[in-house]
Design the sequence.
């Protein structure tokens, strides 16, 4: 896959504070396997191939970008794919799942209770009995190999910029992308993650655990911001929706409210607060996730006229 572009923002709301903000457009990496999901999958796929697996199995919610990316990657790279989906079949039919099916993924629905035990030995046994031999990808693709792929993201940013950025920001779900950035960015840079989940004093713990599992140490300082979740995963406020609408109009870059909207909101907030000295260069990672917009149209209908909610087209 080619490198994704690094694009500078020309928003006066940022430049008046004397900071330079660039967006690493990983949303443009591939029409289906976008953003950090490809970064996290790449070395897992190489391992699966080396170990002669022909099936990938993974877990996710009904709107999961990870599930969608694994289904797409399976089709592109020639793996059979199985998605273990949280919830009852039928009740949650949506564009994410219909894409996954169209890409050839076999979906296996698990009630919420059972899904909570997805990492147990008993569940693994059930899955092996049913599906035979498969390469297991954890929920969100968050494992040690994912950090290696996110390391390439860090390297690409430094190479394209031609210097070390003062900070690199990303949205955090599992924390794997942040862990990979912290492990591979130069020590003079700093990695700042914006948690999109509520009540995760554990996000920083997850980052530390992932670094440990990968036998990596953080090279750059890193931090998780936990005040920008807007009520929790996939929750949003009118303020966030207004921000997303303005951001898209001013910068002509598509973002969505679940991940990148919260990350950019935090970035603008930090800039306004003077968290970055004038003259700083900040790179924000656009981690993709635009396919998830399709599942939001109905939810946002009652909240205003957000025409951008319909701008993602399946390919
Ligand atoms: C999955 C996802 C994330 C979260 O990445 P983690 O490595 O799990 O922290 C961020 N942004 C988007 C768009 C995603 O789809």
Sequence:
């Amino acid at each position: 896959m080619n490198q994704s572009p690094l694009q500078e923002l020309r928003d006066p709301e940022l430049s008046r504070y004397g900071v330079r903000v660039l967006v690493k457009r990983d949303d443009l990496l591939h029409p289906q396997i976008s953003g950090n999901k490809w970064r996290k999958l790449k070395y897992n796929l190489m391992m699966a191939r080396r170990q002669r697996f022909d099936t990938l199995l993974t877990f996710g919610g009904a709107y999961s970008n990870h599930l969608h990316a694994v289904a797409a990657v399976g089709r592109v790279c020639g793996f059979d794919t199985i998605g273990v989906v949280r919830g009852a079949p039928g009740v949650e039919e949506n564009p994410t799942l219909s894409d996954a099916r169209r890409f050839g993924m076999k979906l296996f629905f698990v009630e919420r209770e059972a899904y909570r035990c997805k990492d147990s030995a008993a569940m693994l046994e059930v899955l092996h009995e049913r599906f035979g031999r498969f390469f297991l990808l954890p929920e969100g693709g968050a494992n040690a190999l994912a950090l290696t792929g996110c390391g390439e993201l860090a390297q690409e940013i430094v190479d394209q910029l031609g210097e070390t950025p003062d900070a690199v920001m990303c949205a955090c779900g599992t924390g794997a992308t942040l862990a990979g950035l912290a492990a591979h960015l130069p020590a003079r840079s700093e990695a700042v993650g914006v948690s999109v989940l509520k009540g995760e004093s554990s996000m920083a713990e997850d980052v530390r655990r992932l670094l440990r599992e990968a036998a990596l140490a953080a090279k750059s300082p890193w931090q998780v911001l936990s005040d920008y979740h807007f009520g929790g995963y996939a929750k949003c406020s009118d303020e966030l929706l207004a921000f997303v609408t303005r951001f898209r109009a001013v910068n002509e870059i598509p973002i969505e409210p679940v991940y990148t909207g919260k990350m950019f909101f935090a970035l603008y907030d930090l800039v306004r607060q003077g968290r970055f000295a004038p003259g700083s260069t900040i790179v924000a990672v656009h981690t993709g996730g635009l396919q998830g917009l399709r599942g939001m149209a109905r939810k946002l209908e009652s909240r205003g006229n957000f025409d951008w909610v319909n701008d993602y087209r399946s390919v």
Observations:
- The mean pLDDT is 96.
- The first helix runs from residue 12 to 15.
- Residues 3 and 215 are 27 Å apart (CA to CA).
- The first strand starts at residue 6 and ends at 8.
